[in-house]
């Protein structure tokens, strides 16, 4: 079984929802982490049923920014903690294998990067194997940058 991590940008675009639904129909995924969903309230719950993934944990967006969604199929997920940019969980997958999953979204604003870095530093204290599904909002090459200030 596999995992999918995706920065969806915004589900108001119906092409995004349709594309995700097609991927989920073809792949047998135990865990799906979506960042930047911009969901608030029941919109996330409605979406979970639309894509036939009714089990999951939602972190609402704030002022139309962010939003996280952690969906599971047959795996047991225990949420340890969460915040605007993080879902910290323990996963029990097939054969009772336990591992740590952290779904992470780093703010694109440089002023908020210290908060994101502090969260990641805590990973070294984990007692289980771990996976970090993330969107670090980081540019690897200046050729990727279209406008705005340099970092």
From TrEMBL:
Coiled coil: none annotated. The keyword Hydrolase applies. GO terms for molecular function: endonuclease activity; exonuclease activity. Keywords: Endonuclease, Exonuclease, Hydrolase, Nuclease. It comes from the Eukaryota. The keyword Nuclease applies. PANTHER family: ENDONUCLEASE_EXONUCLEASE_PHOSPHATASE DOMAIN-CONTAINING PROTEIN, RNASE H DOMAIN-CONTAINING PROTEIN. This is Endonuclease/exonuclease/phosphatase.
């Amino acid at each position: 079984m596999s995992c999918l991590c995706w920065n969806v940008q915004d589900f108001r675009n119906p092409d995004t929802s349709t594309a995700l639904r097609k991927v989920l129909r073809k792949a047998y995924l135990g865990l799906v982490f979506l960042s930047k969903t911009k969901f608030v309230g029941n919109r996330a719950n409605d979406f979970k049923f639309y894509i036939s993934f009714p089990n999951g944990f939602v972190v609402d967006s704030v002022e139309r920014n962010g939003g996280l969604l952690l969906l599971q199929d047959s795996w047991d997920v225990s949420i340890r903690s969460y915040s605007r940019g993080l879902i910290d969980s323990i996963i029990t997958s097939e054969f009772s294998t336990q591992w740590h999953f952290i779904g992470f979204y780093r703010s694109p604003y440089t002023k908020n990067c210290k908060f994101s870095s502090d969260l990641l530093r805590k990973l070294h204290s984990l007692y289980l194997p771990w996976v970090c599904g993330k969107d670090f909002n980081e540019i690897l090459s200046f050729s990727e940058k279209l406008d705005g200030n340099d970092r």
